UniProtKB/TrEMBL annotation:
<dbReference type="InterPro" id="IPR013078">
    <property type="entry name" value="His_Pase_superF_clade-1"/>
</dbReference>
<protein>
    <recommendedName>
        <fullName>Phosphoglycerate mutase</fullName>
    </recommendedName>
</protein>
<dbReference type="InterPro" id="IPR029033">
    <property type="entry name" value="His_PPase_superfam"/>
</dbReference>
<dbReference type="Pfam" id="PF00300">
    <property type="entry name" value="His_Phos_1"/>
</dbReference>
Amino acid sequence: MADIWLMRHGAYEGHRPGHHAPYNAALTEEGHEQVRHALPLPDNITGIVTSPVPRARQTADLVARLTGLPIVDTSRLLAEWRAPSSVLGRTSDACPPDYQSWRNRRLTEPSLRFEDAESLAELHTRAARCACFLRRTAHLHGSLLAVSHKLILGVLTHLREGPTAFGTAAVAPWNFAEIRRFISANM
């Protein structure tokens, strides 16, 4: 059976802990260095799949260039959790009161959405579909490196927790350019 490895993208422009990153944030030079230091990859990887979000795609492109591995697919299933547009670049204390109310209720009511955000239930469903996509793609192409984002990777690795896996993913550390083996539970 083919292995699946998960990698968080490198550091990106404007990164500040506690802020939601804008979609188009690019890798910084530090991010490029983090990716270089993450190499060499595990020996059996034969291809890369990536999120289309620029910081992840740039990470995957750099890995591909440095290793000679092909990017075999780009999938929105690997994109980061879609935060509400109104809070991008803000800390939680600078967000509207109705956002604060939603944040306080989202783990107990995971189907709730705020504005254009992805609900936690929707994120969990996408992560489950992503696990199937990764297994199917690894079956076709061999062992993979999947380049993605902290929250979706955290939910993906805690699928059994259900939609509340977001709570675990939000606080669990996952360093920039860190690579972990994906233990895929059949869901």
